Amino acid sequence: MEQFDSSYYFRHYSPLTFLLFHTRGLLLIYFVVASKEDHSNRDCFAVAVLTHGDVNESGKDVLYGTDALIPAEKLIEHIKLCPSLAGKPKIFIFQVGSVCTFACLCVFKSTVQF
What CA–CA distance (Å, rounded) separates 45 from 114? Predict the structure, then answer.
């Protein structure tokens, strides 16, 4: 299922001139690293997270990564605080189900240069 879903993103977003890559696991670490990258020559940031999740005791949506059970808003917050993405669109796609037991990321970085 995950392989089909991630290939869908590659097939449909590649023609839109997004730089795409696929990774598994370490969900929180990816978002921390991405928030520290220089995105000043990009016009937007988009990421699709394919994983499974739950609602924690506080009623917040949480995602399963190989590194932790992570509140979805924590992932978003890292990217929102990235200085080089200030004022730029940030697109987050969370495809959450109970089929897979790991996190898979399809990351889209616009290749449009200023």
Answer: 14
Q: Can you spell out the DSSP letters for 41-93?
A: T-S-EEEEEEE-EEE-TTS-EEEE-SS-EEEHHHHHHHHHT-GGGTTS-EEEE
- Mind listing the domains of the chain with CATH numbers? 2-110 (3.30.1330)
Which tokens belong to 113?
A: 């240069």
Report pTM. 0.74
Q: What is the DSSP letter of 40?
A: T
Q: Residues 59, 110: contact at Cβ < 8 Å?
A: no
Confidence of residue 85 (pLDDT cuts 50, 70, 90): very high
